[in-house]
Amino acid sequence: MRAACDIRISFHPPPAELRRFFTTFYMAEIRLAPGETVTDHLQPEWANLRFHSGSLPVAEAFDGTLVSGTTFTATGPSSKIVRYTTGSARVWGIGLLPLGWAKFVAAPAAELADTVADGNTQPAFASFRPLAATVFGAAPDTPAELERITRHFLERIDAPVANEARIVAIHEALIDPDVASVAALVARAGGTPRTIERLCARAFGFPPKLLLRRQRFMRSIAQFILDPSMKWIGAMDFNYYDQAQFVRDCRQFLGMTPRQYAALDKPVISAVMRERARIAGAAVQTLDGPAGGAVRR
Fold first, then answer.
1. Cα separations (Å) of 123 from 67, 77, 150, 248, 281?
2. Which terminus of the chain has fewer CB atoms gathered within 10 Å of its CB, N or C?
3. 163-218: per-residue pLDDT in tens?
4. Which residue stretches of the chain have pLDDT < 70?
5. Domain at 6-154, CATH homologous superfamily
């Protein structure tokens, strides 16, 4: 039986100057009985930084890599689920858009794709350690914590981003459901296939073909989680040829069948997705546009 879990989520849009670098800043307050823990599965997403106060989590990548005992966990862009276990805690999450990765992280995204890391020891995340050390004060204070996060990034906003316009163009193509092939993505973004491949590795973490498949799959997952009455057949993105193709993607990205995933307890991620859809416009961050926030169609 799952432990009784009280989860409160608040989403905070970055200021206008930062919006093109981040999905959202969000605070999750997880309250459990003493000694109890809750486990959930983080879906494929863009990179995330998470700062923890209270219980320290155990994060397990799809390949079995474990990270525990740290106040700062970081995940690269992901195409696989991450198993996440925590007790009572306050957690600040920062979602990095591809342009945000290119600007603030000192490594190509492909090098850290589908990984979980201790941000306090992984060199690529060294620039965020001063924030990890100071974001929480002596007592919980969400406005003050948010101000520290915002100030940290505003103080670093002047650093240039190489290939910014092309990264944005690739991102715009990826979130358009009508762009369903690599050839269409290259035509939309401009440049050569090799240029697009290289920039995807630097800022997005994966080859263009996999990114398009992930977008198609995540549009389907978002539909299903928000309205399970649709069933999988109703939630499937229109770019799927048939249900068998969707099932193959489910095994690829989640490591299980759609039925197995539907049966999973999702106490944290379901609450996050519902609130995110209400506040930010999209249930999952992979559907956010390059200007920050969801693209409404």
1. 15, 17, 22, 35, 34
2. N
3. 999 999 999 999 999 999 999 999 999 989 999 999 999 999 999 999 999 999 99
4. 1-3, 280-281, 292-297
5. Jelly Rolls (2.60.120.10)
